[in-house]
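Sample intake sheet
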Amino acid sequence: MINLNDKERVELANKEYDNLKVGDAVTIANGKKRIGVVSEIKNNPNTGEQSYIITDKYLGQSPSGNDRNKVTEVTVLYRGSTGIDQWKKEPLDVWKDWLENDIPSATQILTHTGGRVVTPQLKSAANTLKNSLKMYPNAKHYVYAHSLGSMTAQYALSDINEKDASRIGGAYLYEGPNAYSLLTPEQKKMAEALRGKIYNYVDFKDPVTIGYGAYKENVGQLIAVDSKDVNDMGKQHMWGGYQYDKDGNVLTDAKGYAALAKSTTREKLNGLEELKKIFAKSGGHLSGSEKIFLDAAEALALTQGMKMTIQYDMNELQKTYKKAMDNADDLWRDTLKDARTLGTSLSESERLDALASGGATEASIRTKPKAKYQKKITKLTAIEKEYDELINNIKNAIAEQLQKDQELAQQIGSA
């Protein structure tokens, strides 16, 4: 399993809008991370569903059951709506997406009228996921979706059976309406069972993200994105407002950071468990080098998870201290302005003396407070630097071990 940060996951989700062909390799991060190969394309003209099935191994045409059993990871990409501005080029897609799916579903979500009517595209998307779970029985499945695709993915994930729930490795859904009200009671139970594996990213500046609220239930964990306003509805919807820290983590609220940290750490630890099984199969027991590698990789995953967990609070504290420093500048500026307004007959030095006699000096109002806040920012920066240095030291130690033990490096590469 390839570990991805939020920025890379968005890049992968955006691949659903590429004109991919069967047999195409899917990579991200400038080709540095390979996701897999397009094995199937779902383009259902009757429902408007468009999705890609990406497998970690390319099986060719008409693969045997034995070939499909060798697939260990599947990525499903659900495409969002074809832009309504494309109605001349792709009239059927626009009709299916908007008039037969988006508008009817949005009406139900917003008004709760007309009963629970599930559109054809949602049913088609659910069949796609169920069929993929059946076709690749030994594979973990990861789901990525955007816009209308997010809504169809929410429905599809909620429609699988209990036996297959453990094979959902994770789902990353972006900028879609809240599909919870479209689910049956049984589907809502499955959505709750998968809650810890589904991450539902929402930029509330995007008008497409309807149906969410403080007292409304939703599919998966709601990740409220701390977005910027790009003053363009289309760009806002296409991740234009997303902001990331230097590690590629999307900026969100404290709850979102904690959920993402937990998810990322769990994924990495699960990947190490799988690698441990592969090591054990190849030699019967773990070698000394394999144990050292696994221990170091686990320490790296936990340290990165801890840093991400506290990152939100550190970011917020830095914002608070920087704002306080700006306020100190403003307060001293306003103090001087008031003194000049009231003491028109005094010279500048006399005004400063008068202020000082009342305890209002630049040092007390501006310089000392700013120095205090700067000291706190420096401490926060030092803590972050310590985490970064520890993470880099572990990475370097792992890299050195793999450099020395080429057999181990080859094992990991083939795994």
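Comment: The first strand starts at residue 25 and ends at 28. The longest helix spans residues 288-342.
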